Amino acid sequence: MNHFPQMELPVIDEKIWREPGGHHEVFLFRLPDPGISELIVCGVSLRQVVGILPAETFLPWPADPPRTLGVLSWGGTDVPVLDLVACFGLGATDYRLARRLLLLRCTRKGDAAAIPVLADFGQITALDDYQPVTHRLAVHHDVLRGAYHFGPRLLFIPDLDSLV
Questions:
Q1: Contact 90/35 with Cβ under 8 angstroms?
Q2: Helix/strand/coil for 97
Q3: Global pTM exceeds 0.70
Q4: Could you tell me which residues are beta bridge partners of residue 70?
Q5: Which residues, at least 6 apart from 143, have a Cβ–Cβ distance to it below 8 Å?
Q6: CATH code for the domain defined by 26-162
Q7: Residue ranges covered by each domain of the chain
Q8: C-alpha to C-alpha distance for 96 and 85, rounded to whole angstroms
Q9: Beta-carbon count within 10 A of 64 CB
Q10: What are the pLDDT digits (tens) for 88-135?
Q11: Which H/E stretch holds residue 35?
């Protein structure tokens, strides 16, 4: 069974993310860290995906805090570029390995964030098919909305509202 199906870039359909217990379309992506990407896949609601840009569209700021890699100017707004690996408390990403920037909107605020990712994406239609992680993980729980067993990997659902 292929746990990370390949897909074309998504067409955003505002009706696909429903209330808890309903049907969920989850957009999957991998972080640009060879060790982490073998263990963890990240997912967000497909409605959160605003765009996918080339990774070279932002200039890094080396003096930034470890969670923030830089700022991207998008539509006249400054959008922080976040290192999710650092946000999870798992070290830091070599963002130079990223091939794309995933531009995401927060679910509870009107803010946005950009995440450096690898170029392969996937999609699942229901989190109900995956078991939540019940044991304690050595990550910052305040930045996670959920964690699930996802074949040989873990599926992390980041809480972007807590990061922006």
A1: no
A2: helix
A3: yes
A4: 60, 81
A5: 87, 88, 158, 159, 162, 163
A6: 2.40.50.180
A7: 26-162
A8: 14
A9: 14
A10: 999 888 888 889 999 999 988 778 999 999 988 999 987 878 899 988
A11: helix 34-37
